[in-house]
Design brief:
Length: about 300
C-alpha cells in the first residue's frame, strides 16, 4: 500500500510540474519575450502614426480579416513609411506578423512599458539617458537634425534665432539639444555640429511633426522647429511654408529599443533583431527602403 501511495504521489507531482510548465494549457510557458512572440504569432511594435515619412497612417489600407493583431493594434496594411517597412522586415525575419501600437512618444522613451508592446522601431536616437531604462539594437539608420523656420520669418542664421521661440517634440533629442542638455543628449562630441541659439523659448508639442503642421495651419507663437532633416524635406515637398535653416546641427544614430523592465528577458529578441538589421545592411534592403521613403541613403554611419 505504501508503494502504491508513493507511485501516486510521484505521478501527481509530475502532473503539477507539467501543468506549471505549460501554464495549464497545451503550450509551454514562454521563457523569453522572443518565445512569447513566436508562440502568439505576432510582434507588437510601437511607433508614431504622425511622423511622415518614417511612419504614418495608410488611409487606403484595409485591415486583413485573418490578422493576428490585437483589436487595439494596427496592422501593417494600416500603416506605411520607412520605420513601418523596417518593422515588417523584422517580423518576416522572426516568422511572425508585425502589428503596431501608437503610444505617446514620452511614454516610449520613459521605459517601464508594462509589457504593452514588445519593441520600439520608431526612429529612436540612442542616448545615455535612454540607455538607463532601454536597451538598443545596432543602428539601422543615421539622421541629421536640422532647424526649419517659417519661410516669411526673414531668418537666415542661427544667431537670428537668439531670443526667439522654437517648437520641438516633447521628450525628444531635439528638445534636449535646444535646451543645451548635452549630458542628457548623450551623443558623441563629434556628432554635435552646432550650439543651440541663446535665450530661446522652447514650445513643446507631442511630436515634432505637429510643430510643422501648426505652422502650416497659421500658428504664429514660434518661428520654427527642430527635427530630422527627413521630416523637413517631407514637409517642404508637401508644400509647408518652411525652409531649412543652414546645415545640420547634430547627427543621430537610430535604433530599435527594448524595455529593461520587461517581465520576460529581451536579450534573445535583441540578438535576433541585430542579426536582421545586419543582414539588411549587408544585402542593401535598408538602403533601398531609405531611398524609397527618405529620398537618400541614410543607412551609412557619418564619417
Amino acid at each position: 500500500m505504501k508503494r502504491l501511495y508513493n507511485i501516486l504521489a510521484v505521478g501527481i507531482v509530475a502532473v503539477l510540474v507539467l501543468a506549471a510548465c505549460t501554464g495549464g494549457g497545451g503550450e509551454a510557458k514562454p521563457a523569453t519575450l522572443l518565445d512569447a512572440i513566436k508562440q502568439r504569432g505576432y510582434i507588437l511594435v510601437s511607433t508614431d502614426p504622425n511622423y511622415e515619412p518614417q511612419s504614418f497612417l495608410n488611409t487606403d489600407g484595409q485591415r486583413p480579416a485573418d490578422t493576428k493583431c490585437p483589436a487595439d493594434a494596427l496592422t501593417s496594411a494600416e500603416m506605411q513609411g520607412f520605420d513601418v517597412e523596417v518593422a515588417v522586415e523584422v517580423g518576416k525575419g522572426l516568422g511572425v506578423e508585425t502589428c503596431f501600437a501608437t503610444p505617446d512618444w514620452d511614454l516610449i522613451t520613459a521605459g517601464n512599458w508594462a509589457d504593452k508592446w514588445d519593441v520600439s522601431i520608431g526612429s529612436m536616437t540612442i542616448t545615455t539617458a535612454r540607455q538607463k531604462v532601454l536597451d538598443f539594437s545596432v543602428p539601422y539608420y543615421y539622421a541629421p537634425a536640422v532647424i526649419a523656420v517659417r519661410a516669411d520669418a526673414g531668418i537666415t542664421s542661427l544667431e537670428d534665432l537668439n531670443g526667439q521661440a522654437l517648437c520641438v517634440g516633447s521628450a525628444t533629442t531635439y528638445e534636449q539639444w535646444l535646451s543645451g542638455d548635452f549630458e542628457g543628449l548623450g551623443l558623441p562630441e563629434s556628432s554635435i555640429y552646432a550650439q543651440p541659439p541663446k535665450d530661446v523659448k522652447i514650445v513643446p508639442l507631442p511630436t515634432d511633426q505637429e510643430c510643422a503642421q501648426a505652422i502650416a495651419a497659421g500658428r504664429q507663437d514660434f518661428v520654427g522647429y527642430v527635427t530630422s532633416m527627413t521630416v523637413v524635406n517631407a514637409n517642404i515637398a508637401a508644400g509647408f511654408p518652411v525652409v531649412q535653416l543652414g546645415s545640420p546641427v547634430y547627427s543621430e544614430e537610430l535604433a530599435a529599443a527594448f524595455d529593461k523592465s520587461s517581465s520576460l528577458p529581451t536579450d534573445t529578441l535583441r540578438e535576433e533583431v541585430n542579426k536582421i538589421f545586419t543582414a539588411m545592411h549587408s544585402d542593401g534592403r535598408l538602403s533601398q527602403l531609405s531611398i524609397k521613403w527618405l529620398g537618400e541613403d541614410l543607412t551609412q554611419a557619418p564619417k
